[in-house]
Write a structure and sequence with these properties.
The protein is 57% helix and 16% strand. By secondary structure, it is of the alpha+beta class. Strands 8, 9, 10, 11 and 12 form a five-stranded antiparallel sheet that branches. Strands 3-4-2-19 form a four-stranded antiparallel sheet.
Length: 631
């Protein structure tokens, strides 16, 4: 055994290393089984006692893919065209018309946005320096700079999405870039789909916008109402439905009675004695949008009327009645529920943001000790702190809206000048909501808006079925192969099966070591690598049988058999490995999972088929074996 001492040490070291990397997977399975057997307080106590150990082994275990564990797959697209629009200066109607054409073409074209952008401006004979850069810059120079900015925007978007997903607590996410402007996010094991969707959509744009004066907001609403009534533009059905939602026997419902008393809603209040049809004709806008009686600038729209209000506000003729620097935004969550119907706040904000989320460097969710309410403390960088002090100092007693993806998350009053860049955000209903805002603020704002283009969900039951099917396919393949080798090659087949066991062990160990993800295609790759391992052992055993037929000694026949089979084994495994590399490099998702396990399998196959099985045969000869049955 002296001549094989080095090989034995290598095999032993490989076995121990594989055990080291696979142990967390085994421990994680034990923890899961124990937690499944407990319930109630016992389960919580066990979880608290072993929390650190459980987190540690789950981080190091073999991870299951989306097709095995269930979860969400979301395709995000970075809106480069919107970023270019926001970067423009001296924007006019011509500029917005060109950008609308760019957005329209981008929806159906795979051409890089920057190429479409350049072509549209040049088609109208307009120099890009009119809206971008300096007058001395040429179109090519500006396009080159914008192209670099678009690449940075997608890369930064990936990092920010990754940071937010990591902070959300998904332990096994997959985030990949696809094409020039898309990002694929896979979140195995996620069950709260709406919360994750909000998290990803919240990455679009974080802005701080001042609220317009209440008088301006209410006069604008009154002007829209008067214009629609004078032109007899009314959706009677919508108004009747709205009136039915909010009134009983011609009188305002209790929760809404306080909304009908301001000067701007006096006309709306007079509709109490009218039928719904008459009210809709007299005040077609103010029967859908109800200003707050306290004159705060808020108005309220029922969930049933939001689409109707949106259609009115989107009309070009109505847009001309709204101040150029003002736009209407909804609150992200309902203000109250009346009669089972949700009512959302509608606020008039300045279009231009005072600050964006790029200045936020930290945020923390906590409980306010004075009022026992969830709050988020926010900290800005030095530049943001200076601007924040200037903005808050100049707008004391005005409201500053925190806008996430064009939805108002909070609109607190500015109580005084805020210096030092530290602020407190209130208005969250729960600590979970506060933590979600903390994640969004802490990770920063994206340089361009992000839209969800596709969302798929895999239920946990389907994942369980996939695990069962994948496990059975693997076991059936293993049993058939092992049985064939024993029946056909006898003792030689037994040795080959020992090498096969090490082969599978090393594949899973490498997966665990590199924190790979096991998917259904990955299982297919493992099954194929088992076939490759059997093929190598068949070549070796057949060569040994040929050598034994020439009356050579057992030792000489085994040595000759391995030497003559090695070239064919090496060629087949190396070519398969390179094929796997090509699949991994140019494939995506399932194809990469298959290629990864296949490459691991053929690499382990060279080690187990050529080294381990040969050492076993040589050990048997040194122990005095005169014959070995090769079938």
């Amino acid at each position: 055994m002296k001549k094989n001492r080095g090989k034995l040490l290598l095999i032993l070291a490989s076995f121990l290393l594989a055990g080291y990397f696979l142990y967390p997977t085994f421990r994680s399975y034990q923890f899961d089984q124990k937690l499944a057997s407990l319930s109630g307080a016992d389960s919580l106590a066990y979880l608290d006692e072993n929390e650190i150990a459980i987190k540690d082994v789950r981080a190091k275990r073999i991870k299951l893919g989306l097709d095995l564990q269930g979860g969400m797959r979301v395709v995000l697209e970075v809106n480069i065209a919107k970023m270019f629009e926001e970067m423009g200066k001296n924007r006019d109607d011509v500029f917005f018309a060109i950008m609308a054409d760019i957005n329209k073409e981008a929806l159906t074209s795979d051409e890089p946005i920057v190429n479409i952008f350049k072509a549209k401006f040049e088609a109208r004979g307009i120099r890009l320096s009119k809206y971008y850069g300096s007058l001395r810059e040429t179109n090519d120079e500006i396009v080159s700079r914008l192209s670099a900015e678009s690449e940075k925007a997608v890369d930064r978007a990936m990092e920010i999405v990754r940071n937010r997903v990591d902070q959300y607590g998904v332990s096994e996410p997959s985030i990949q870039k696809q094409g020039g402007r898309r990002i694929i996010v896979e979140l195995p094991g996620v069950s709260k789909e709406s919360e994750v969707r909000q998290l990803l959509q919240g990455t679009a744009m974080l802005e701080f916008k001042l609220m317009k004066d209440a008088d301006i907001i209410y006069k604008t609403m009154q002007a829209i109402d008067t214009y629609l009534a004078s032109n007899k533009i009314v959706d009677t059905t919508a108004a009747v439905a709205a009136q039915a939602d909010t009134t009983a026997a011609g009188k305002p419902a209790s929760a809404l009675s306080a909304l009908q008393q301001t000067d701007t809603t006096a006309a709306a209040a007079s509709t109490a004695d009218m039928t719904p049809e008459q009210a809709a004709k007299a005040h077609p806008f103010l029967t859908l949008v109800r200003p707050n009686q306290q004159g705060t600038g808020d108005a309220y729209v029922s969930e049933n009327d939001r689409s109707k209000v949106d259609r009115i506000l989107a009309r070009p003729d109505v847009q001309r009645l709204i101040p150029a620097d003002m736009a209407f935004y909804y609150k992200s969550k309902p203000e109250f529920i009346d009669g089972g119907v949700k009512y959302f706040g509608l606020l008039g904000l300045k279009k231009t943001a005072e600050l964006t989320g790029t200045v936020v460097i930290d945020a923390r969710a906590t409980i306010d000790p004075n009022f026992n309410q969830p709050i988020v403390t926010m900290e800005m960088n030095s530049e943001g702190a200076r601007e924040w002090a200037r903005i808050t100092g100049a707008n004391v007693n005005k409201r500053m809206a925190i806008v996430l993806d064009n939805s108002v998350f909070s609109a607190p009053n500015i109580r005084g000048k805020i210096t030092g860049g530290r602020s407190q955000i209130e208005g969250m209903e729960s600590i979970d909501e506060a933590r979600l805002l903390e994640i969004i603020l802490k990770a920063g704002a994206l340089p361009a808006p992000v839209e969800i283009m596709e969302q798929r969900s895999v239920g946990p039951s389907l994942g369980s079925d996939s695990i069962e099917a994948g496990t059975y396919s693997f076991l059936y393949a293993l049993i058939i192969v092992v049985g064939f080798m024993i029946i056909y090659y006898r003792t030689g087949g037994m040795v080959a099966n020992i090498g096969l066991f090490f082969n599978v062990l090393f594949i899973f160990a490498v997966l665990a070591a590199f924190q790979g993800t096991l998917t259904l295609p990955g299982i297919a790759g493992i099954v194929l690598s088992i076939g490759m391992a059997v093929d190598a052992n068949v070549l070796i055993n057949e060569r040994i049988r040929e050598e034994l037929a020439t009356s050579k000694t057992l030792g000489a026949s085994i040595a000759a058999g391995y030497d003559k089979a090695f070239t064919a084994i090496l060629d087949s495994n190396v070519t398969t490995f390179f094929a796997g590399m090509v699949l991994y490099q140019f494939g995506s998702g399932p194809v990469q999972g298959f290629a990864l396990t296949l490459m691991m399998g053929v690499t382990a196959n060279l080690f187990t088929s050529v080294l381990i099985s040969r050492v076993i045969f040589e050990f048997m000869i040194e122990r005095g074996a005169k014959t070995i049955n090769f079938g």
